[in-house]
Each structure stands twice: as C-alpha cells, then as structure tokens.
Amino acid sequence: MRLIVAAVGRLKDAESDLCARYAKRFDAAGRSLGLGPLSISEINESRAASADMRKADEASRLLKAAAGAAHCVVLDEGGKELSSAAFASWIAQRRDEGCKGLAFLIGGPDGHGAEVASAATLKLSLGPMTLPHGLARAVLIEQLYRTATILSGHPYHRA
To answer: Going edge to edge, which strands form the sheet with 122-125?
Structure first.
C-alpha cells in the first residue's frame, strides 16, 4: 500500500533531516509488510488575500497530491486521537482490505479547506497541543515508522 504525506509549507533543515530519517526507516521496515513506498509532497503556502481563499487553494493542491489514494487521513486538532497501537491497527486494516493508497494531509496555518475536510476518511489529531506544521509532519512520519515496527513485532515500540 502506497503512502503519501502531503503537507503545506516548507521544512527547516533539522525538520527535513528528521523526516527523511524516519521516511527511510519506514520504507525499509514497511516493504515486507506491504506498506510503502512513502512519498512526501510539500506544497507552498497560498498567497491568496483571505484565509478562506488560502484554504480553498491549498485544499485543491493537497487533494491533487493525494490523487489515487483510496483513503485520506486529514490531520486536524479536533480529530480522533489514537494510540500508536490503534493507529497501526487502523493502517493494517486498510492494507488488509486491499487499499492501494493512503494519503495523510497536513494543512497550512489557516487549517484545511472544506474540500479536504469532506474528503477525509479519518480526521486524526496528534494530541491536544498545537504543534508547528513541520514538527507535526515529523511526528506523523515517525508514527508511520512506529506502525511498521509494531506490525512486524520489532522491539522499537516498547509499550
């Protein structure tokens, strides 16, 4: 099952290095589990005049980056909070159902447009605290790697 992380905004060097490290680990660990490859798509922040216009512009570009994915997981502060094990189980269920692609969408500073919200199979929260978008992306990709280790029985996840 192919995985896509599509996110609004550019990462700083340290965030980019962290994401690349976990993405590489995920690709190696996920291959034997039928997970991957993981592709990461960065989308420039919109320069539209109003927040609603920016959200709409970013939403259309996020959905374009997610094209071909059977399910969209939208990161949202009001979304469902899952433990790492429950997240791994949810992904495994999608894979076992024959899902060919799963997209994770991270919006810009103004949030998601209505088009993205309506496309969501799952609205996911990484917790009650607000995270910078770059850090949220790093946490998400680490959790994808953790998913692969949980599903393979690797000792990385010691819960």
So the answer is: 38-43, 2-8, 101-106, 71-81, 122-125
